[in-house]
Amino acid sequence: MLQFGVSLSPVVQALSEHVELAQAGESVRLDLVGIMDHPYQPRYHDGLALIGVLLARATRIRLGAQESRRLAPFGSICCGAGPSGRDGPGDGASPPDTR
User: What does the mean pLDDT of the chain come to?
Assistant: First the structure.
């Protein structure tokens, strides 16, 4: 199944701005929102913490950490959205990275 999404940069700005962008993605029926995970850089929010904030407010869109090496030694990890429980952590994970 073909899915569409957007990548949001976790630049330090008001969390409400990130929430608005993710909700805009939901309103136009996007399937996924990816958040870069670059820990320990002061110009970015922690990607995993930002995903938690967005999941708390999401209703149907899936969120995932892009380029995260903190969770697993492979590509993106997707988490289901909101209270629907449609997907759980780890669902939609990419195959192992062969780089």
Answer: 75
The 10s digit of each residue's pLDDT in 31-44 is 989 998 876 788 99
Let me know how long the chain is.
99
Residue with tokens 């929430």: 19
Of the candidates 45, 97, 43, 44, the one whose C-alpha atom is nearest the C-alpha of residue 74 is: 97
The residue to which tokens 């608005």 are assigned? 20
Q: Please state, in angstroms and as integers, the Cα–Cα distance from residue 27 to each residue in 16, 21, 31, 60, 61, following that order.
A: 16, 10, 10, 10, 10
Confidence (pLDDT) at 95: 38
Residue 81 has pLDDT above 60, yes or no: no
- Give the residue among 84, 81, 79 at the shortest CA–CA distance from 66: 79
Q: Is 12 exposed, middle or buried (0-12, 13-18, 19+ CB in 10 A)?
A: exposed
CB 47 within 8 A of CB 10: yes
